[in-house]
Amino acid sequence: MIxxxxxxLKYTLGRFFSKPITIQYPEERREVAPRWxxxxxxxxxxxxxxxxxxxxxxxxxxxxxxxxxxxxxDEEGKRYPMTYEINAIRCIYCGFCVEACPVDAIRxxxxxxxxxxxxxDFMLTIDRLVTQDYLxx
Amino acid sequence: MALLIESIVKVIxxxxxxxxxxxxxxxxxxxxxxxxxxxxxxxxxxxxxxxxPIADGIKAFFKEDLIPANADKPLFILAPMITVASxxxxxxxxxxxxxxxxxGRTIFLRISDLDVGILYLFAFASIGEYGVVLGGWASGNxxxxxxxxxxxxxxxxxxxxxxxxVIGVIMLSGSLSLSAIxxxxxxxxxxxxxxxxxxxxxxxxLAEINRTPFDMPEAEAELACGYNIExxxxxxxxxxxxxxxxxxxxxxxxxxxxxxxxxGPFLPGVLWFLLKTFVLxxxxxxxxxxxxxxxxxxxxxxxxxxxxxxxxxNVVVTAIVMAL
Lengths: 137, 324
Hints:
- The complex is a heterodimer of chains A (137) and B (324).
- With 137 residues, chain A is α+β, with helices and mostly antiparallel strands.
- Chain A contains 4 helices and 5 strands, in the order αβαββαββα.
- Chain A has one domain (32-131): Alpha-Beta Plaits, CATH 3.30.70.3270.
- In chain A, β2 and β3 form a beta hairpin.
- Chain B has one domain (67-323).
- The longest helix of chain B has 35 residues, at 2-36.
- The chains are: A alpha+beta (137), B mainly alpha (324).
- Chain A binds chain B through residues 5, 8-9, 11-13, 15-22, 24, and chain B through 32, 34-40, 286-287, 289-291.
């Protein structure tokens, strides 16, 4: 009857002297998997331009309907998005938009703690998707 | 007059150190439990979380102090005071060091040397249980009442075994005075003569202070905190302080009775006393991180059918050996 108790005490003492596995969150961050689906960003080509051709596939496939695109054409007849908005509050991070994109324009990053004070700050426009100003928040 | 000043100074110093010890007990407990569970415990308030007890105290002050409508108001207010006051009274008879000479006066490092020190200890420890029982009953809450009933039943079951486990020591030293008991252990600690009594004492003490694995009156999982369910703000903090003070005192008494009190080579007596007490306190936290709670009927079974006969046998065997 006594020996199991002592065995238990020995085990917890071993745990006491082991290093805690806690990740000290704001200072340390956990490594994310290579295929982690964090907040979106726009992939840019060698000229620093985003690749989106405003085909609308991402908006069509989005299950939560959080992508809004208005397409336009430039003088050479090439389509580009006049407005492109992802509502990050509505987004469920399924990654369908990334899979649907034919030109590899949109991708998902590693940031998993996207927080802010105002609802408007969660509307990701083209500028924000390219510059990724939300990364350091 | 000089004696009065000496006493007052001793009381203030001991009270201050004791309260600081109790406050940082809460931090120590959370830290050690955290490490046992392979996490850090509180480390945000100040370096290593050293500000945590102060922050907790300030928070408790600013919480709303609720008294339930169907509570017995005077008893409800009185109960935490009884718990904490009786726990604080216990420290008065524990000798924590050898005599020192200061300003040409010989000062004994204890607040008071009662001839019936052990009786005083058990009397006040039992009064502390009244706080728990009254608090649970006065809350006007079913969980509180059940917790209070369990506390009462548990106290009766374990008080006997606790007293009996100490009787062997009293027989050996031939005195109820704690100072005499400590002086009697100058060459060999009582734990060598009474190893089983020490184990029984620690087990009963854990039950006496309602600590895991005997924390029936609280039993978070089944009674939702039991006797202190309706308490908030500083009253709740008082209950907690009383509980931790009681824990420290129980460990200090174990040090005095079994581990030779302040006796020890090289280091000053006070340090030895604190060190031994700390080791026992650490054990109490360590076992809390290890053992699950016993079921209520198992606790009663263990108290009456196992601990009581064993402690009685210990007393009889001690008597026979001494007579021989």
